[in-house]
Design goal:
three-stranded antiparallel β-sheet, single chain, Jg7052 protein, about 130 residues, 9 strands, mainly beta
Length: about 130
């Protein structure tokens, strides 16, 4: 697997993010059309406490997926899988707002689907 670091410099002007980088695992090279993005603010551990899936319509350019985890928990890992036959979107994570943002480029019109999975651990002082 080829690992690429994606930085979110353009996004930092809109929302203050304490860390925004992803390890991007591409599977587009003849093996399918699913692109996976992982966001790890601390380390990848904990239990899966959130999972959702959905479809992105033909004319939708920006999709926000709020991550809801149990109260008194810290988010430790987020994985986003996007299936799109045309090309990969830009995927960013706002850890302060606990929201995944999936954006498509201008002129990129196609139907796609996504799966968001998140892990968390209980806070020690609760």
């Amino acid at each position: 697997m080829k690992h690429n670091i994606i930085s979110c410099l353009y996004f930092i002007f809109f929302v203050a993010i304490f860390k925004c980088e992803a390890v991007n695992f591409k599977s587009r090279a003849g093996y399918g059309t699913v692109d996976s993005f992982e966001f790890v603010p601390i380390v990848n551990f904990g239990e899966v406490t959130f999972s959702t899936s959905g479809k992105i319509g033909l004319l939708e350019k920006n999709v926000r997926v709020p991550i809801v985890i149990p109260s008194c928990s810290d988010l430790t890992y987020v994985r986003v899988d996007v299936d799109n036959t045309v090309g990969p979107p830009y995927v960013t994570m706002d850890f302060d707002m606990r929201t995944v943002i999936i954006k498509y480029r201008t002129g990129q019109y196609s139907v796609s689907s996504f799966v968001v999975t998140a892990k968390s651990v209980p806070k020690s002082h609760c």
